[in-house]
């Protein structure tokens, strides 16, 4: 897969251009599936999930002008025959994965079978916040909200670095560079702190930071 791991969606020209380049065709010719599952772990059902699915202009992902957009709800997939959803995922051009709770998302990616399918997909994976963090080997104790059955902060490990999103966000007073440094000191491996104008592009293991804002790489 190709990964575009964002803090707050496709919210500037640089990130948008990177996405189009990864798709290798216009957005208007590309099909998408949005995955809102992390939001249930992060805050429960309600208006925010509807806003994500319908296209929330504060976090541009679903509303970019896709040829079509479908919904893939991971909590439902274990009750559905794989022949009903796997071909759909294999044929789509992009997966749009919301923020919320990364460990809840990790749990349902594994339970649904999507985690096993991801490495073989041709789609571009676009994550936002927790939707990006879930690709890391682990998220760090400070981001543990929903507690998985094993009590660990491990996630999918499809990239080899961790992420601290929403750096210096005015609505998140704890997301300071100083706290990011403390978080990174506990991460066993490279870790990025990124603000909302930054994304991390990963293709075949090659990492590139796309930014119109600020970010920092912490190396172990």
Automatic annotation (TrEMBL):
Keywords: Hydrolase, Protease, Serine protease. SUPFAM superfamilies: Class I glutamine amidotransferase-like (SSF52317). It comes from the Bacteria. InterPro entries: Class_I_gatase-like (IPR029062), Peptidase_S51 (IPR005320). It holds the Pfam family Peptidase_S51. Belongs to the peptidase S51 family. This is Type 1 glutamine amidotransferase-like domain-containing protein. It comes from Fictibacillus terranigra.
